[in-house]
Design goal:
Tetrahydropterin Synthase, Chain A, 3 domains, single chain, 3-stranded antiparallel β-sheet, alpha+beta, 11 helices
């Protein structure tokens, strides 16, 4: 078992490890969905409401107009908000869960209500790895995989777990280690699809209570220790050679059995043997074309040919 100090170090290094792993995978770069419309709406609402208030009280007092305009603008922009199509907002009232808002326009009562979280409900891609995962035959492997998941219940994702993204990453790594520990080294490569499904089932059991569903788990790479790669190559070569020899032996056995059956037929009927001899002579003449020198025993097949044809 790993010590608590080592587990603590891994927990501290988790964000950097995820970032490094994501960079090393060289995923195709794409422009992320913009939230500029949300910010522009808040700025426009702030300027409009604040400017309108300042205009109405401008003649009374300049400082009051400016300070009041800023205050009104801040209150208005924090009260009336918008959420993109893919986003859901968890709203708390006096510290208790109240509702899920979005997408589109929604209102938050200042001081009384607050936005606890903004949850993206699109499919999220998370790369993760299991470094030195030990198989059932005690072989350490390095495995890289990709997890596709999404939040289907924003309330549970916000209330039931502190940081659902980190929780999903740690759960995926643990599930992969557990799944690898149940099989041997030789089965890791041949049962990759089954291993994906097993990790997916383990993750679904853990994340269902968090309002998260796992779409799929895909293993990208399996790193075998360099000192074992040569041994595995020789083992695979020996296995293929063994299979080829067994196949050759089975073929020779089948051919010998056919020869035995043919000999029994020839032994029971002399005419069958003569026909076979004549057929061999015909094939030799056909292949070489012309006169063929053959043993004198071949000529016996043509003896008493008149009686044979009758």
């Amino acid at each position: 078992m790993r010590s608590k100090a080592k587990q603590a170090r891994e927990a501290e290094q988790a964000p950097a490890r995820v970032k490094a792993l994501t960079g090393s995978m060289a995923a195709p770069t794409a422009k992320k969905t913009s939230r500029n419309s949300v910010y522009l709406f808040a700025i426009a609402l702030f300027l409009t409401s604040g400017g309108l208030f300042a205009f109405l009280v401008w003649n009374a007092s300049l400082p009051v107009a400016l300070l009041g305009g800023v205050a009104v603008g801040l209150v208005a922009s924090s009260t009336v908000r918008i959420a993109p199509q893919w986003e859901r907002v968890v709203v708390l009232r006096l510290g208790k869960f109240n509702r899920i808002d979005g997408p589109g326009l929604y209102v938050v009562v200042p001081i009384v209500e607050s936005v606890a979280a903004r949850v993206d409900q699109r499919i999220i891609t998370t790369p993760f790895s299991a470094e030195e995962a030990v198989t059932a035959d005690l072989v350490p492997l390095g495995i890289d995989a990709v997890l596709f998941w999404m939040v289907w219940d924003p309330k549970d994702a916000c209330v039931e777990v502190e940081d659902y993204s980190s929780a999903v990453w740690w759960a995926a790594q643990t599930a992969l280690r557990d799944a690898v520990g149940r099989i041997n080294l030789a089965e890791v490569a041949t049962r990759r699809e089954q291993l994906d499904n097993e990790v997916k089932e383990i993750l679904e059991e853990k994340t269902r209570a968090w309002g998260i569903t796992v779409v799929s788990v895909e293993i990208r790479d399996i790193a075998v220790p360099s000192e074992l790669q040569d041994a595995l190559s020789k083992e695979a070569q020996a296995e293929r050679e063994r299979n080829s020899r067994l196949l050759l032996a089975e073929v020779e056995k089948d051919i010998s059995e056919m020869f035995v059956e043919a000999a029994a037929v020839y032994e029971r009927n002399d005419k069958a043997l003569q026909l076979r001899t004549m057929n061999l002579i015909y094939e030799s003449v056909k292949e070489k074309g012309g006169l063929v020198i053959a043993p004198s025993a071949f000529g016996e097949a043509f003896n008493n040919i008149d009686g044979f044809l009758k």
